[in-house]
Design a protein that fits this description.
The structure is a homodimer. Chain A is of the alpha+beta class. Chain A has helices spanning about 5, 10-25, 65-85, 105-120, 170-180, 185-190, 200-205, 220-230, 245-250, 255-265, 275-290, 315-320, and strands at about 30, 40, 45-55, 85-95, 125-130, 135-145, 160-165, 210-215, 235, 270-275, 295-305, 310. The termini of chain A are far apart. Strand 3 (about 45-55) of chain A pairs antiparallel with strand 2 of chain B.
Amino acid sequence: MALLADVGEFPFIEAIKKLVQAEAPRRGVRVGIGDDAAALSTTATTLATTDAVVEGVHFLRDWLTPAQLGRRAFRVAVSDIAAMGGKPRYVLAALALPAGYRLADARALVASLIRDAAGVGAALVGGNVSRADKISITITVLGQPSRGALLRRSGARRGDAVYLTGCTGMAAAGVELLKRGVSRGVLVSAYRSPPLHLDLAARLAGSGVVSAAIDVSDGLLQDLQHICRASGVDVQLDESALALAPALARAGLEREPLSYALSGGEDYELLFSVRGGERANSRVESLCSDAGCRLSRIGEVVAASSTPGVRGVSQAAIAEPGYEHFGHKT
Amino acid sequence: MALLADVGEFPFIEAIKKLVQAEAPRRGVRVGIGDDAAALSTTATTLATTDAVVEGVHFLRDWLTPAQLGRRAFRVAVSDIAAMGGKPRYVLAALALPAGYRLADARALVASLIRDAAGVGAALVGGNVSRADKISITITVLGQPSRGALLRRSGARRGDAVYLTGCTGMAAAGVELLKRGVSRGVLVSAYRSPPLHLDLAARLAGSGVVSAAIDVSDGLLQDLQHICRASGVDVQLDESALALAPALARAGLEREPLSYALSGGEDYELLFSVRGGERANSRVESLCSDAGCRLSRIGEVVAASSTPGVRGVSQAAIAEPGYEHFGHKT
């Protein structure tokens, strides 16, 4: 079982090159891995986002196999492209790995990342390999707008309906279970394998009726607050409309299901507002239904506001207002 | 003295937004920091590269002020755009910082990065902030080709002359001195403040006579070897032509000056081959002279090869064949 420290950086990079040759799409890649920088065919507008998963902060090593980790790192990053209604094309991966990490694990991690990206049409085109005490994977995704306008956070206006895909709170509950040593079940799976909403998001962008969008990474309330602030509006939340995963009630968790759904974080569901009345609402509802995706109408934009915020939140949720990386709860 | 753990992630991101508004170029930035992804104006070809500096691997905390660290992180990454003959336009920064890091230091780090990037026409457009035990800064730079072709590693052919800017080995010697507690002098400065060769590299790309190029990050021999392999050639190195910084001989270092120059690493000088005989050589020599940049003609491509490599290397250097992140020397 060779360790990275045994074989060094360059054989690992050679292995990555071969995996890319075997599995990654080639369209648009003028210069890929192996030169100083990648040279990529791009359109007039390029979308770009960077996200990191850090051992000890976002995961512990025994929570995820290397393949699960590679896939999760990609999905967490590409979710931001989905939230803009874009199409991912290119991926750069900066891998910081302990010297004692097994080469086979490093390959499995990268192979999974390459395959998951290829599944949505994106190619690994570059990156960086560095030693570190703890694993961290920083993924940059470059994309382009799909048909239709970009989905911004700032476009929500009074009267718009607010929608949410999927069930939030499951990933956060999964983390709580993993901390207790539970390693199976739908909640743990929700954490391990975030959803990919790229096709749906592109269709939503193409519909012309989505006025604002964000992906739920910090927790539903926190991310809804981001839309409120960017748009300068208040949103009236209808807590009773939230889809609560039955597993949240069955798992013997520390808090009420609603609390996880409102402030869990790491969900990577889509949260968006729709303008155009019931006809527009029906349009997005059928787009989601066609995509086999659960959709809940969870609120309404009620007013422009100079102190934008979410109304109608019960006390239980206010105690846990979302994920903050430096441990501070505002 | 507020710590990141006191103020949280979002106030730090707000501070970064303000710094960007004050100092970063705006051209081409359709959506900058504050939405899910940046939306950037791009040309038909986009160059992309990612590089990381990791505490305990690339630096110790007392080796660099936060401002020096921010600048160095940018320069290490943008060097790959220079090596392609490109022009940097956009920067994404993934910052992993300890909760006990001071907000003022985090701001100084980012301000310096923004300013250094702005100095070469590039704007910070996005990134990520995460907690971690140790500092790591992962920088993605997006650029575009300047006038002229891209400089690849693979174009060197028999008869081409091989050139090197500046004096290699100083940064590695600087690291050795920093480890001993020396914190001043030209060698330490060479490590702290890598050169920016973007304008020169763009002119070299525009000259049409540069057949291959790379930036020296792993050590001169290692990077020359990368050109040999990518081009399928042997290079005859003329060690006596290497410019040795006088400080290397005066600093009481562990090894001979030549050894640092050949295998030090972290230099970020440009190494390139030139095709077209003495007329072409004169052309690049005057380009460098006009840029105020030292240039040495250090060898020649002597043959196509199925076992590509560097010839004419003395024993002293072979003992230390360049930087490898997992501690393995090939």
